[in-house]
Amino acid sequence: MGLLEKKTGIVTGAGQGIGRAIALSYAREGAQVVVADFNEEMGRETVRLIEEGGGVAAFSFGDVSKEESVRAMVDFALATYGKLDIACNSAALSRGAGPIHEYERSVFDQTIEMCLTNTWLCMKYEIAAMLKNGGGAIVNISSNSSLRGQAYNTAYAAAKAGVNILTKSSAAEYGAQGIRINAVSPGVIRTPGVEKYFAEQPKMAEGLQKAAVMNRLGEPEEIAEAVTFLSCDRASFITGQILSVDGGGAVR
Ligand SMILES: NC(=O)c1ccc[n+]([C@@H]2O[C@H](COP(=O)([O-])OP(=O)(O)OC[C@H]3O[C@@H](n4cnc5c(N)ncnc54)[C@H](O)[C@@H]3O)[C@@H](O)[C@H]2O)c1
After folding, report:
1. Do 16 and 224 contact (CB within 8 A), yes or no?
2. Domain residues of the chain, as ranges?
3. What is the phi/psi pair of residue 93, to 5°?
4. Ligand 1 pocket: which of 65, 88, 90, 147 to mutate (most atoms <8 Å of CB)?
5. pLDDT in tens, 102-146
6. Measured from the CA of 141, which atom of ligand 1 is nearest?
């Protein structure tokens, strides 16, 4: 029996990278999964991979930084599978890097919207659905840049620090109603998003390649293992936590 048998879940940003690995892991453990992404081709490919492995999934198209898309995503999950038990909010987009005095306000605003506001919006509608269901579990994807800051990546680091406090505050709000809310904070993980970032920001790449004390990049599946555990009933007394999965990057 899988860890998530009979559960219905949403994974945002599940078209590639960490989100896709989480959606595959949820399905492998028996959950019915709504794969949400604004890249339709990649999202549908994740659904295909899940079905190929014998799992159950459906695709929801939309930009989760837009309230109407988030409402539609949760409505779609309820219409398709009847309830919502678990959700992982992984979708995020970093809009730029550079010294703060040269940073454009518009880039800062977009990064906050695509990393923090989107997470808040997803939680708003996921929690409303979970309350009707008598409880649930949410895992937000943070980043180790939120823990001690990251030079030249200030908007992203601040947005992810916001995700941490959103996680803790909402865990305090909804614990008594049976909703557990945690975050996983990845170190540097080998994903298409990170490979693109390394190509665009070679100076940042040098330091990030060496971030883990384990001397390697992490794999998306290693994040998915932690998210799956926090989503399942074995984590029944864990809420309000930020779990770094980083090969020791936070203790370097
Ligand atoms: N890869 C890393 O090293 C790393 C480190 C720390 C934190 N993270 C976090 O992990 C998460 C996943 O990262 P990744 O490297 O797999 O990213 P990625 O760029 O490889 O994939 C992100 C996916 O999310 C989708 N997406 C982004 N914004 C969206 C939106 N508004 N609406 C719908 N879909 C959207 C993209 O289409 C894509 O499929 C992000 O929250 C990221 O900040 C990643």
Report:
1. no
2. 8-245
3. -145, 125
4. 90
5. 999 999 999 999 999 999 999 999 999 999 999 999 999 999 999
6. 41
